[in-house]
């Protein structure tokens, strides 16, 4: 880690718009945002707001119909193999559903080693100690590696997915609703784990979530999307504490709270 | 197990009386273990639990809807009818009339090939005997009651043509169509966006109070349950661990498990209190 005076955004979207083929309107319009190192960003909004579409763009899985995506200041070019290798090494992801995001026919060791092997960093044997370390870091027992995904609960599977994402030591972790499929008690623990990883690995999270309390626990910055448009973005404490836009206020007021 | 006391009508106001309800799989695993509780008419009970707690199986058992390979023992008396072991014919009479259910995913309750209007008309016609134009206006009225604007458009729509929140309102309208004494709601707002959820909870609460209907509200979310019920029962691994007035359980939980549940919810919630300096 070399500290730079003014770090460039790791990921940056400028005037991004997305329209699906045959659709009458853009699903995402005029979105500009930057992911600065150490400033975890939450994309917040309800279904159909375009959160997941934006995340797919940030992951390089979809291309915007207009606007630009930059990675470390360079335009992201999915055909540029060398850049993509750097990109995949620096940006990893965790998905919402821990049941469909792990290959059921492979042992956990092979699943977690996948980024190391596909990026050509390690062979099966040289990956093993890194896999073991990643599994240990996410709080799973050592014998996890030799078992299959179906043997684990939802929370444990999400830990496996996190181990896979951090095994190649990325700078950015993109997460699509990483804890919303989990029970409350499990959710708290996984949120804690993500917070620790952020701290100790200088990991920047980019998280899509509809759960404002999870966002507030993990992200320094928040961007609020409503029907494909960015209605508000800024420091999380500012956006959620003193929302400027009525839609943000409505979202916050809708969160059911326990009676005191 | 033969149901004996079927013609017995409860004279008190206990609408649902569950005693020693146990659900087992064919290979002998116990999924709901010796559960007992009652719901009086007009009372609102919350059933709280995380995944695998047996809360959904309990609601299915109450209506005799357990999937193949599972059997219920014990006693479930719904408006005087013994549900456990009752023949399907008797259960059909109970479902909808004495107790109706709204599930988490409205698409499971809605026929994808049938327009919304007809789906509501069916139970309405059965109960009221209305036909033709009168039935149509009763359908419109039912849709208005669940605060659907454009009821005529919704009535003509197929399930895939309307939003998730609208579907859940239609499912609620269907459940209310037969004016059941007990409304069972199994995670009815879990699949909805927060702002839609807030509206739906408010709607449910208003309708239930207006009609003095009893509610069994099943959810993993303590804060949601606290909004719409008076009393809660906390389930873990198929067993009841705590029961009491919702405010007591949420502010002073006694069981260790409930304490962990409340602490988890409060911890996440506290992150939202951003107005105070961090």
UniProtKB/TrEMBL annotation, chain A:
Taxonomic source organism: Streptomyces tauricus
Family per record: Belongs to the ABC transporter superfamily.
GO molecular function, one term: ATP binding
Keywords: ATP-binding, Nucleotide-binding, Transport
Keyword Transport attributed: yes
Domain ABC transporter intervals: 11-252
Designated name of the protein: ABC transporter ATP-binding protein
SMART domains: AAA (SM00382)
UniProt cross-references to Pfam families, sorted A to Z: ABC_tran, oligo_HPY
């Amino acid at each position: 880690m070399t500290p730079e005076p003014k770090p460039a955004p790791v990921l940056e979207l400028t005037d991004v718009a997305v329209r699906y083929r045959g659709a009458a309107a853009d699903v995402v319009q005029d979105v500009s945002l930057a992911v600065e190192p150490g400033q975890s960003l939450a994309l917040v909004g309800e279904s159909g707001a375009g959160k997941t579409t934006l995340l797919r763009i940030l992951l390089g899985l979809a291309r915007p119909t207009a606007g630009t995506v930059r990675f470390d200041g360079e335009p992201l070019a999915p055909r540029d193999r060398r850049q993509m290798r750097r990109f995949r090494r620096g940006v990893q992801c965790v998905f919402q559903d821990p049941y469909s995001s792990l290959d059921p026919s492979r042992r956990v060791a092979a699943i977690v080693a996948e980024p190391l092997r596909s990026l050509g960093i390690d062979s099966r044997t040289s990956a093993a100690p890194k896999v073991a370390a990643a599994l240990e870091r996410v709080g799973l027992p050592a014998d996890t590696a030799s078992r299959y995904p179906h043997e684990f609960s939802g929370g444990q599977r999400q830990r496996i997915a996190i181990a896979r994402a951090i095994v190649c030591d990325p700078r950015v972790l993109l997460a699509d609703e990483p804890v919303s499929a989990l029970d409350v008690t499990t959710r708290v623990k996984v949120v804690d784990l993500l917070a620790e990883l952020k701290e100790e690995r200088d990991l920047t999270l980019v998280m899509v979530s509809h759960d404002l309390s999870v966002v507030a626990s993990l992200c320094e910055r928040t961007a609020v999307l409503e029907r494909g448009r960015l209605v508000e973005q800024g420091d999380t404490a500012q956006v959620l504490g003193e929302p400027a836009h009525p839609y943000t206020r409505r979202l916050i007021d809708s969160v059911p709270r326990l009676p005191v | 197990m033969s149901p004996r006391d079927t013609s017995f009508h409860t004279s008190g106001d206990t609408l649902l009386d569950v005693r020693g309800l146990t659900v087992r799989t064919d290979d002998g695993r116990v999924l709901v273990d010796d559960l007992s509780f009652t719901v009086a008419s007009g009372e609102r009970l919350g059933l709280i639990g995380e995944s695998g707690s047996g809360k959904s199986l309990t609601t299915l058992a109450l209506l005799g809807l357990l999937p193949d390979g599972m059997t219920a023992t014990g006693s479930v008396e719904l408006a005087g009818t013994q549900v456990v072991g009752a023949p399907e014919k008797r259960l059909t009479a109970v479902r909808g009339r004495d107790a109706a259910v709204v599930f988490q995913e409205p698409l499971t309750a809605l026929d994808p090939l049938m327009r919304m209007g007809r789906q509501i008309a069916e139970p309405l016609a059965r109960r009221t005997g209305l036909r033709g134009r009168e039935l149509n206006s009763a359908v419109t009225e039912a849709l208005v009651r669940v605060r659907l604007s454009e009821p005529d458009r919704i009535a003509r729509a197929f399930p895939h043509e309307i939003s998730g929140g609208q579907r859940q309102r239609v499912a609620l309208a269907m459940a209310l169509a037969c004016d059941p004494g007990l409304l069972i709601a199994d995670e009815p707002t879990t699949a909805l966006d927060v702002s839609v959820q807030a509206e739906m909870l408010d709607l449910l609460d208003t309708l239930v109070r207006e009609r003095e209907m009893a509610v069994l509200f099943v959810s993993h979310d303590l804060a949601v349950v606290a909004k719409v019920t008076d009393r809660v029962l906390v389930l873990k691994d198929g067993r009841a661990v705590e029961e009491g007035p919702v405010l007591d359980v949420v502010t002073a939980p006694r069981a260790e498990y409930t304490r962990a549940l409340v602490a988890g919810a409060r911890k996440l919630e506290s992150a939202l209190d951003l107005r105070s300096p961090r």
